[in-house]
Amino acid sequence: MRIPIFRHWLAAALVAVVGLLQLPSTARADWADASGFLSVSATPRAFDMATKQVFSYVTVTNNAPGAVTGPLRLVIPTSNFTVVGAGTTADGKPYVNLPNGLAQGASARVRVSFTQQRGALTFTTRPERYSPPTVTAGLPGTVPEGTPVTGTALVSGAQGPLSYLWTQTSGPAVVLTGDTTATLGFTAPTTGGTPTTLGFTLAVTDGVGKTTTATASVSVQPNDIVVDAGTDRQVYAGLTVSLHGTGSGPGTSDIFTWTQDSGTAVTLTNAGTANAEFVAPAVTVPTNLVLELTYTDGLTTGTDQVTIAVLPQPTQSSANAPLIVAGATQQQPLVLVAQPGAQVSGGTTETLTAVASGGDGHYTWEWKKPVHTGGAACNTTDGPDDGPQFQVTLPGTGTGQCEAANVTYKVGVIVTDGAGRQAEDVTDLWLNHAALPLTIQAPAAAVSEGPKPATVAATASGGTGPYTYAWVQTGPETSPGVLDPAYIVTLIDPTTTTPSFVPPPVNQDTTLTFRVTITDSTSPTPLSATRDMNVLVRNGFALTPTLPFSLQVPPAVSVIAGTPVKLGAVASGGTPGYTWSWGCTGGTAPTLSGQTTSTLTLTGNAASETLTCTVQATDSAGTPASKQGSVQVNVLATPGPLPLAVPPIPRIYVDEGTAGVTVTAAATGGTGTYSYSWAFVPSGGVNSLTLTGALTNAVRLDAPLVDAQSALNLQVTVTDGASSVTRDAWVVVNDITPPLEIALTGGPLTVTAGQTVHLGSGLTPRGGVGPYVYSWSQTAPATPAVDITDGTTGNPSIVAPTVTASTPFTFAMTVTDSVGHSQTVSETVTVNPAVPNLAVVARLQGMGSAGTELFFNPGQAGSITTSLTAPGTGPYTYKWTQTAGPSLGNLGTGATASFTVPDATSTVAVTVQVSVTDSGGKVASSSVDFNIHGFRPGKPCVVCGDLNKQIACNDMELVIADLTQCPDATPYCMNDIVQNASLDPAVAQYKRCVDEVECDSLWYQATSDEPLCLNFDPANGEDTLICHLCCWGDACNVDTVPPVETLYRP
């Protein structure tokens, strides 16, 4: 045995005494249970020589007014002796069983035998009346269908090993896993759209063989989550694109998350809201961006995707118009419009269509083989070349086929009319490796009233070809759904891409509306798209009128005999492709050349004669057969020079944007030395014009862009040094630019107050004459007024204003092109009120402290309070859930949860979560964690001295080391050592019973890391030293320094 410090000099003399002290003659039996109905008494201890055991008879008496049901146990807290034939409680204490219950006033006696191991023989016995454990079946209250569910058995106050059995009592049958363990698992069943409830029973059997049950139910909600990431659309590179998603489900949360699935990487802003934004990246070919929206309602999660096709930024100029070549005298130029560019899928066949107008109407077509840069594997299969249509079969994009990225095909087409005039255009096809959304292009058209047939046209792109078409007339209407009978037309070939009809007679310009539905060949479910188009029927207007055939001849001229003169005639109208015939009569026959051209060269051979020259012009149609005109030619002698003259300058017709138009003046007579000066007279809506070569006979100019056919007036002044002549010239400029319009893509936006949103990403101006000028304004409501940032661009932004209810705001965008044409469209943004955020923090109250650990002792009262760090919108509901540890019981539904800590046989962790829901459905949660320390009953300790009175233990007390049972409230043994060289004695010891708080603060916090205390030696040379050594165990503080294994640890 260990000899305490300071008593080595008494050891030899007191060995026999110590031996006697180890076997006291009586047991301490002073405990009764809390009800006071059971009492305990014990006989003096005896020693059984045969078995070498110490034993005592313990009697338990029932003082209750009635019988006490069992079973009853007698638990012996000591651990220094082996109790013969005893069982062991969950916390390691030996026990013996008493009879199963006691009648009123009855007693039961049991023999308790001990085998000594070490230390003094002191024990305390107490009866324990059986009480069933507290059992809670921990299951979530609500779950979505199809999700895994976990249940946990929460048990406190149980004795002995436990067994579990979970059973389902109601609802659709589910497959249970872990049904004989503390953790249950199953998958929530499908509900068929109707919420359902599952009922469960948990049975827990303890080591005594008694069973306690608990029930719980789980509400299974249909997975009715709906997610919409918005409509697929096209945008131009460089624009800020606003995304708008929606989500709904049975849960109470609304959590949105945007991510990019594919395409050129972009940076998403506000990606955690329903309305994210990004700037469309710069691209040289159309590029698809796929964005994914993930929506969570607090119970389950759903996703949806939207495809944004980013197109290269167009150049805003009249170069967007088709290439046009005009003849010198052709008022209606030859026009060729190729099919607009399209995105196509591999393995499909595309039929390209070109439309020609103007010229003489006799067209021949030439299609060019598609040119690309994708290598031989990306070649197309072409043909047949069928006039204005051309078929292109794209290569497949699978492995070993056309695997090149971003392949662009350029398909050229040339049209030639009967007069040899040519026009050409190009269609771009962009090959995509993924299916594109089905889109339709159906441009508006203008036609003249009958009887000449007119056509409507639509082209499809995306999806999977080939396509089927279905056309119907939708307007004008006399009432909703009823067509105006005066304007109903019959569509011919309404299942083709270009049906025709005869425009009805109109008294004023009237718009007919048609709708085309195009269905592709996507398998197994074809895609379908619909597009409306307008056809303006103009009153008394022909798009390509045939002008009356006319002939202009020069006025009478005078010429000096022997000098040649040119007589020029000009034909117009009719059907171009004219033939000519000249002849002269009267006087001496002149010398002629160029008789079969429009210009006759004549030389008079005799003076003082008058000749009449007749010209006959015939158009290519021969109807009417011909036109005749006569010119009087006066042949003069040469008495002197002819006067200065400038023949009339023929009128020139050109198309807007034509470069290098040349106007020529030819002077005759005078001195023969001429100087020229050209000037532009503002006319035709044009105020200024740049002239090149204005001091020569041939001036050049570039035809300006116009918004209607315009006549430009030029004046040339010719001087020969003696006189001058001024002559007018006219250049007629045709308007060929498509009308200004604004394409609408995408849908209205819904945002929350305070969010920034960009306008215009779904509005695309086209046609007209670029560049464009933008102007934005708010049209509704009048208040609150919203500031528009960058309101003179096509992509401005706003900050959604504060509103008290969902409010639509309408903004008008007016686009004006460079020739003054304007179009206005509106965009609507619905603003919802901002919902205050909700956040909660839960805090423990009434806990103990052991270092940084938060803990409670059994029986201690505690509470958890909540505070809202973000207020949300009241009123609030609270839900408390315990997810770990022995059950704390019903925690209520208020802002504070109160509880009494249950018994525990060892330190166990507890987790409690609170969920707060505000009136707007927002949910916030917080959790707390703490430990419950296992029950630690009082131990027999050496108690001597009085620390408060500074009375130290004497040497005899330290050597004898008599033991005193510590109460359960102060179960720990403490040795206090005070070393002070100036006192007598220099070292004082105090031994006492303490609670956990004092044990933790004086020993564990203040002394446990002090080596002089852990290895205390009075000869350490220290002048002053104070140590507190705390332990838990039978007689653990007999020695000055307790055994290491008994020292307190939290």
From TrEMBL:
* Span of the signal peptide: 1-29
Q: Where is the Ig-like domain?
A: 548-630
Where do the TM regions start and end? none
Q: Where are the coiled-coil regions?
A: none
Keyword Phosphoprotein carried by entry: no
Keywords (A to Z) from UniProt: Signal
Annotated SUPFAM superfamilies: Immunoglobulin (SSF48726)
**Highest taxon of source:** Bacteria
Pfam family for this entry, one: K319L-like_PKD
Q: What is this protein called?
A: Ig-like domain-containing protein
Q: Which species? A: Candidatus Thiodictyon syntrophicum
